[in-house]
Amino acid sequence: MNMNGKLNIETCKGVYEPAEDSYLMIKTASCGKKVLEVGSGSGIVSVHCAMLGSEVDAVDINGQAVECTINNARKNGVEVNTFVSDLFNEVEIGIKYDTIIFNPPYLPTDDNIPGSEQWDGGPDGFRLVRLFLREAPVRLSDRGEIYLILSTLTDIEGLKEEFSHLRFEEAGSSSFFFEKILVLRITS
């Protein structure tokens, strides 16, 4: 483990850089014994959980992000099991997680700009969120928790209605000039 207990994270070309939402997730999410981070990016959240003693699986659709996560785990002296996966496609069926973390592309836009997949959540901001929420609950252990970041620029109440079988609770937030980002704690 890193000698001073502080994260030492390098950014990587073509990979989402840690930003306010990443730091909010670190501050807010409880890392369980077994953690899955979907969309690990630089690996900052996965490395944080591993430094707290969690057994961590980290996946990203971007191979560069997976390499970045591996390098940042090494740099911090922790082990993170990483692999390329489109959401849960390559995550072994039957494994149950105490914590599943996802900082998705959540901005409501459809810019189709190269690289926009890091922030472009589609017209309503939920393009990947819906797919994630359909599968994440079956991957949870009995008392498992999901931590998800969303923006107030989206219809969060509509999403809650759509997934009314899940319990949503605001776990943390940060306000900006034009929006508020929320970390939602979701349980079955």
CATH superfamily: Vaccinia Virus protein VP39
Percent of residues in beta strands?
Answer: 25-35%
> Count of helical segments?
5
Gyration radius, rounded: 15 Å
Structure, briefly:
Helix content is 24%, strand content 27%. The protein is of the alpha/beta class and 188 residues long.
How would you sum up this structure, described in words?
α1 (20-28) packs parallel to α2 (44-51). The radius of gyration is 15 Å and the shape is globular. It is built from 5 helices and 7 strands. A 7-stranded mixed sheet has the order 3-2-1-4-5-7-6, with helices on one face. Helix content is 24%, strand content 27%. The chain has one domain (31-187): Rossmann fold. β2 (55-60), α3 and β3 form a beta-alpha-beta unit. The protein is α/β, with parallel strands linked by helices.
